[in-house]
Structure formats: C-alpha cells, structure tokens
Amino acid sequence: MSDTNPSAKPWAGRFNAPTDAFVEAFTASVDFDRRLYRYDIQGSIAHATMLARQGILTDAERDAIVAGLETVRARIDAGEFNWSIPLEDVHMNIETALTADIGDAGKKLHTGRSRNDQVATDVRLWLRDEIDAIRAEILRLQRALLDLAEREADTILPGFTHLQVAQPITFGHHMLAWFEMLERDRDRLADCRRRMNVLPLGAAALAGTTYPIDRHYTAELLGFDRPAENSLDAVSDRDFAIEFTAAAAILMMHLSRFSEELILWSSAQFGFIDLSDSFCTGSSIMPQKKNPDVPELVRGKSGRIFGHLMGLLTLMKSQPLAYNKDNQEDKEPLFDTVDNLKGSLKVYADMMGHVTCRHERMRASARQGFSTATDLADYLVRRGIPFRDAHEIVGKAVALGVREGRDLSELTLDELRQFSPAIDADVFAVLTLEGSVAARDHIGGTAPAQVRAAIQRGRQRLCDI
Question: Which residues form the Argininosuccinate lyase C-terminal domain (predicted)?
Fold first, then answer.
C-alpha cells in the first residue's frame, strides 16, 4: 500500500478550496519535526493501549494499530518511508501511512487526542532522553577533569584576578573549579527534567475530551510522573523548552569560559599548556600555526545557544492561551541547542584527557607579579600586626621589588626588615610558591593535599549517581 495520499488533508472537511502551494510548504514542519518519529509512535502506542483498556477501542483494533505503527517505524528506520509535505507534520504522515496499511482502525487512533497535546508529548519524550544523554556527557567530561586534576595536583601556576597575577594556585585546583561548574549544570538539567516530566496527552485540543480516558495510565506507560493538571496549560506550555535552553545557555557559558582559558594558556604569550594536535588545525598560509579551533568554536557556539534562548522567550511572550501555530517555531532552536550542546560536551570530554601542562612555564609565570604578597601580609598578621597595617607594609615592599625588578622572595632579609622589624629569616618559607599553596590547607583550598581530597570526594559524588 502507498504510505500517504498527499491530496487527503485529515482536516479538509471544513474547506472548499485547496491550500495554496506556497502556504502548504511554508506552514509544513515535517522537514524538521520528522526527527520526533520514534516518540510520536511511542506516544501513539501508549494512547492506543489506554483506549483499549478503557473500552474505547477493541483489543483487535489496538493490536492492529500497534503492529501497524511498529511497521511504520521499521520503514522509517530503514529509510524507506516517503515523507509528504502536504501532510504537514510527523503526526499526520505517520497516521496517514498507518491508515493506508491497516484501514479504518488507523482512523480511530486519534480518538480523544489532538495534534496539540500530541506534539507537546512528543517533544517532552524526546527532550527527556536528550537530557539524559547530555548529563551522561557532562559526567564523562567531569571524570576527565578529575583525572587531569589528579595528574597535576602539585603543578603550580598563577591564579588571576582581572587577568593579573594574583596568587599561586595548583592546576589541579583550577580543574576542580571547572568540575564544580559542571556539577551545577548537571543538577540544573536534572531539575529541569523533573519539572518537565508531566504528561500533556489527553488534554486534546485545549479543553480535554468527552471520552472516558485514563491519563494516569497513559502517564505510567510513558514513564511520566503524572498527567498535567490543566488542559489549557498542557497544550500551550513551552516553559520546559525555555528552561532547558536556559540551562543549556549557562552550560555553554561555562564551556566558553573554559575555552577562553585554554586559548590563552595555549598561546605563545602564556605557553602554559599544549593541546593535542588532534584538536587543533593549521593555517593555509602560515606554516608555523597551531590554532585551538575546538575551544574557539565552542566559545562561538555559546552565542548561538544564547540566541536560541532569546528566540524562545520572544516566541512565547505574547501568545494567548492555548495552542497557536507560533509554537511550531519552538522545535528548530530546541533541536539545534541539543545538537550543539551535545557536540560541544563530547569534544571537550575527548580533548581534556590530552591536555599537556608545561610546568616550568607555569612556574616561571607564577613567580612574576608578586604572587606571594598576600602570604607576606598573613605572615605579619601572625606576628601581631593588624591586617591593614600589614597590607601597607607589603605594598611598600612590592614597590621596592618593582623598582629593583625583583620578586619578594629575591629581596634580602635586611631589605624586607626596613619595612617591619617583625620580619625574620623564617619569612622566606612563606614566600616560596610551594609554601604559599601548601598553606591554604582547608576544604576548598588550593593545597595539593586538599586537591587530592576534593578529587576523591568528586569521584564519590559521581559514583553515587
């Protein structure tokens, strides 16, 4: 049998003239919403199962519908399905093919539902699986960061504020900061998934249906926590798509920040790390170039995702209840957000295991900019000097170092004592890079011992999931 009859509009009874050819193409969504076909069929099987349980369909009709839908799914999987623009969307394409295959039983599938609640269900089913896949990629990236942090727990580099050298830290500590950012992203997505996991199906067009349906049973079949409470809200709600895209935008902002640091660190001016050749490209004209294209592209994709968030907010901001055709425009930005987010996470998870630290370059940079100045101030405080006075004393010592072109650790004891007699020979122990990082030995601190403890806690958090 033929998959579709392009001239047969399922809603055509009301109309006396055919749809304009351009309008038909302009309003169709099948070119992009066909990717929902598995979820459309999954929802239809659950709906038919519920209808039969309620006596609205016979068991024979249910069995014919389920078998027919599985056949349609197999044809689509095999690339043997003829998608029709005149049939507008994934729903009508599948239903028309089903009816062509099994006859009148196929026409009964739409009993008690509308495309309005159908599409709202399909997108939630699809996005639920995508969130699970995205969270799995975040986990993979987090594990790569923990491995890198463990490998470089003792590696010292300068920590920055205002992109100026501030205090020495360990590279492992820096990687754990990225880990924590991703942990919040993973939690946000889990929270989004929980809130979106309610069933719109059964809301029909906007007011519910006169048939004795069991929405709790359909929710159970499809793995939803419960049916949506209000039929108007169920078909018109796109909060879940906006919330997901907002969480995706925050995640991409984090990846963009990671990218910025990798780009800076891999430059000749910093020279802190080497990125694997597998994640870089060259120049068509300058043979010496090794460009960090992966982090640059991820940084660029963040703007794309931010744009999708603003687009979805704008799409919804003036819509009256309930469903409007505007909502057809929610899918392409949502699909693109998912595709680019998953791709960015995958390439990052692959790349971070191949980052190589240039230890001496990091160490040399940490010795610049008087990064242990705060340690000297803390030393003076422990000698009974108020912090504000200690701050002034160290500032004067730094000024001398600037004039002399020497770090604080390179000044002599006599030079340091001219600013405060409280300074003794033991001061040089706190002015070393190792002494500075080791002194921050508390939870959340940069001391190597604390970094290793945090890595173990991080691994346990991931194991507990």
Answer: 370-438
* Contact between 173 and 446 (Cβ < 8 Å): yes
Query: Is the CATH number of domain 21-111 3.30.720.120?
Result: no
pLDDT interval class at 11 (50, 70, 90): low
CA 359 – CA 23 distance, rounded (Å) = 63
Catalytic residue of the set 7, 162, 284, 318: 162
Residue type, 392: E
Tens of pLDDT, residue by residue over 391-401, are 999 999 999 99
Cis peptide leading into 322, omega within 30 of 0? yes
29 is catalytic: no
pLDDT at 378: 92
What are phi and psi for residue 164, nearest 5 degrees? -110, 145
- CATH number for 369-431 (one of 3.40.50.920, 1.10.40.30, 3.30.360.10, 1.10.1040.10): it is 1.10.40.30
Token output for 232: 């108007």
Residue 91 appears among annotated catalytic residues: no
